[in-house]
Amino acid sequence: MMFTMPRIPVRFIIMVLLLLPALGSGCAKTYYDAMEKVGIHKRDILADRVKDARDSQVEAQQQFKSALEQFASVIRIEDTNLKKAYEKLNAEYEDCEKAAKEVSSRIDRVESVADALFDEWKGELNAYKSADLREASRKQLEATQSRYRGMLASMHQAEKSMKPVLGTFYDNVLFLKHNLNAQAIASLKVEFAALRGKIDGLVKKMNESIESSNTFIANLK
Q1: Is 2 within a domain?
Q2: Which residue among 24, 87, 105, 207 is least packed, with the fewest CB closer than 10 Å?
Q3: Distance from CA of residue 77 to its chain's centroid?
């Protein structure tokens, strides 16, 4: 009796390919090679990851704005139930922290595929027989790398700007936790102005980073 290998669904194969990057850097090359075999190239992965990083910054913006609104609602109402106020603010802080980590994770993924793409591109320059085409490709590589470095710098600047905001936010949440009384509200009003300024600055930097990402994606195509 002849044994027939079961047919593996394409959906299962794609799912395995998507999971490979999470297994460690040692699997990155295997992942990129496998994706290219199914018609998905490094430049396509880079574009998708830049979009993911951009989208995560948009989501982080909204989360920080939501936290600021919640903070403002607490200090506006004198008879707020402070325990509930603390629980809400702490939940907002944890969501902000999670959003910030997601932004960093997305940026790391962008760097991973960009490094692989540029290494491959540079390594293949010597494969050209035509000196003119080799030089044209080299210039295109340098121009793409220059745009990429500008976009990445903007991403990292936005990423860096989240840390002091989270620090200030955490201090105030912790203060409220340890001072669940009316006097805490009066003290928080002083801190609110500083926090609002930092979040406004954060949103501005993220907008610049998002715009830089959009420009890079457009030029990559």
Answers
A1: no
A2: 24
A3: 35
C-beta separation of 162 from 210 below 8 A: no
How far, in Å, CA of 82 to CA of 174, rounded?
A: 13
Cα separation, 18 vs 73, in Å, equals: 42
Q: What is the pLDDT of residue 202?
A: 86
CA-CA distance, 79 to 97, in Å (whole number)? 28
pLDDT of residue 8: 39
Average pLDDT in the chain: 80
Q: Which two tokens stand for residue 56?
A: 């995560």
Q: Which domain holds residue 173?
A: 41-220
Residue 168 lies in a domain: yes
CATH number, domain of 124, equals 1.20.120
The count of domains in the chain is 1
Q: What is the pLDDT of residue 67?
A: 84
Task: Dig out the tokens for 73 from the structure.
Answer: 């609602």
Q: What is the mean pLDDT of residues 64-84?
A: 73
CA distance 139 to 146: 11
Residue 93: alpha-carbon gap to chain centroid: 18
Residue 211 lies in a domain: yes
> What pLDDT does 16 receive?
44
Six-digit token string for 84: 């509930």
Residue scoring higher pLDDT (128 or 6): 128
pTM, to two decimals? 0.69
